[in-house]
Design goal:
mainly alpha; two-stranded antiparallel sheet; 51% helix
C-alpha cells in the first residue's frame, strides 16, 4: 500500500491516522513506512492544529 495519498484535510487526516494506528500499526513510524509517507510531515501538519503524537498511547492527542 506504499505511496498512498493521505487525506489533505487536517481533521480527516487526524481521524484516518488515529484509526489506522489503533487498528493496524504499533507506531507512527510503522504506519509511515507502510504508507510511504513522511512521518515528520504528518506531525507538522497536525501540530498546526494543536495535535501531537503520543507514542505511549500511539495516537495524536
Amino acid at each position: 500500500m506504499q505511496n498512498q495519498t493521505l487525506p489533505k484535510d487536517p481533521m480527516i487526516l487526524l481521524s484516518f491516522v488515529n484509526t489506522q494506528l489503533r487498528d493496524h500499526y504499533d507506531s507512527l513510524e510503522e504506519f509511515a513506512g507502510v504508507y510511504g509517507c513522511d512521518m515528520e510531515e504528518i506531525k507538522e501538519t497536525l501540530k498546526e492544529w494543536d495535535y501531537e503524537y503520543n507514542p505511549e498511547q500511539n495516537q495524536f492527542i
